[in-house]
Amino acid sequence: MKVAIVHDYLNQYGGAEKVVEALHEIFPDAPIYTSIFQPKNLPAGFSTFDVRPSFMQHLPFIKRHFKKYLLCFPSAIESFDLSGFDLVLSSSSAFAKGVRVPENVCHICYCYSPMRFVWDSEAYLSRENINPFFKLILPWVLARLKRWDINTVKRVHYFIGISDHIRNRIKLVYHRNADVIFPPVEISSFYISDVHEDYFLVLSRLNAYKRVDLVIEAFNQLGLPLIIIGAGPYMDTLKKMANSNIRFLGKVSQDEVAHYLSKSRGLIFSGLEDFGIAPVEAMASGKPIIAYAGGGALETVVDGTTGLFFKEQTPESLIEAIEKFTTMEFDPKIIRRHAEKFDKEIFKSKISAYVSEKFTEFKEMRSTRVSTQC
What's the rounded Cα separation, in Å, for the pair 165 and 354? Predict the structure, then answer.
């Protein structure tokens, strides 16, 4: 079986790119097609992969201004010639699911979410600093992308959602059923430490929709130590908000992430996420989570056992949860055991079995269809 992997864009490193790494481990000979490829923003291993970027790779100023080329991404993804493959695995939160595949090629989409910035545009973009001209034409751009997104649903034979939350969204937006396979987490990279320090931790890309602002507002009032790991366009705004009890470490290595998680009091997880790998990484370190009660966190955090929830995305609700947290005790070993359910090896085993099953099913359906036509 000859496999191709298609990913939206490889210009940053996060949970979706960790999935691509795991897919590469399962299918090491599969080329990876993507709109743009910036290896300097990724772990060194990506430079050894067979990555095949689109024509967008050569557009002027693409590294810094890729968002301004928003309407080019559908054409870039559609430009790939995937004849000669038996199966295409798209890894998609935006465009990759729209890849064109020949009629006899099976297409499985591992879907992180239907396009957030299209289908949840008000919530996703409300806090972003958008150029006035782009804001003026944005409704037209989003309407065009929404039509393209719907029209390309039929190109996918099987959907996998990263959580029940996303399975429900796939059903709502695309009117398609999906199976669920949780994303991979490198559990072995994290550990329980005997050394405990007094700070809480935020581990997040610093985008507006991640709602790190409400964490800063809460900790400004509490005066408790908070360390924020991550980088992004919202960093300068967040730094201006923060009091001296809050430290920003920016982008750090995976070893440093494990170090800070293992010694923290716990992780604050304030966004509405489709899954959320950071809470699982914290639990792999034996650390409890204080999480907003929505999205994927409801499927990973066990209230009262591996953490607790706050019900509203407000500083007041978070402060109430933190005050309750300080009166509770958590067992690091129980928390770690729960995290092991999300280990990368489990993901790889489930994906391998799923691909084998669905590829066989697809071939049988095509054979039956051909026989009927004859």
Answer: 20
- Residue 260 structure tokens: 């800070």
CATH code for position 84? 3.40.50
Q: Are 29 and 53 contained in the same domain?
A: yes
Backbone angles phi, psi at 152, to 5 degrees: -95, 0
Per residue in 162-175, pLDDT (tens digit) is 999 999 999 999 99
Range(s) of the domain holding residue 245: 187-342
Looking at the fold, whether 121 and 31 belong to one and the same domain comes out as: yes
Output the DSSP codes for 15-48. HHHHHHHHHHHHSTT--EEES-B-GGGS-GGGGG
Asked if residue 329 and residue 280 are part of one domain, the reply reads yes
The Cα–Cα gap between 208 and 122 comes to 12
Q: Structure pTM?
A: 0.88
Alpha helices in 194-265 (DSSP H): 212-222, 235-241, 254-263
Q: What is the pLDDT of residues 214-271, one digit of tens each?
A: 999 999 999 999 999 999 889 999 999 999 999 999 999 999 999 999 999 999 999 9
Strand 158-161 and strand 106-111: pairing? parallel
User: Within this chain, do residues 194 and 171 fall inside the same structural domain, yes or no?
Assistant: no
What are 74-132's pLDDT values in tens digits? 999 999 999 999 999 999 999 999 999 999 999 999 999 999 888 887 665 555 566 66
> Total structural domains in the chain?
2
Residues constituting the chain: 374
Residues 296 and 162 in one domain: no
Q: Show the DSSP H helices in the chain as ranges.
A: 15-26, 62-65, 73-78, 116-119, 121-125, 132-151, 164-174, 212-222, 235-241, 254-263, 277-284, 297-300, 315-325, 332-339, 344-373
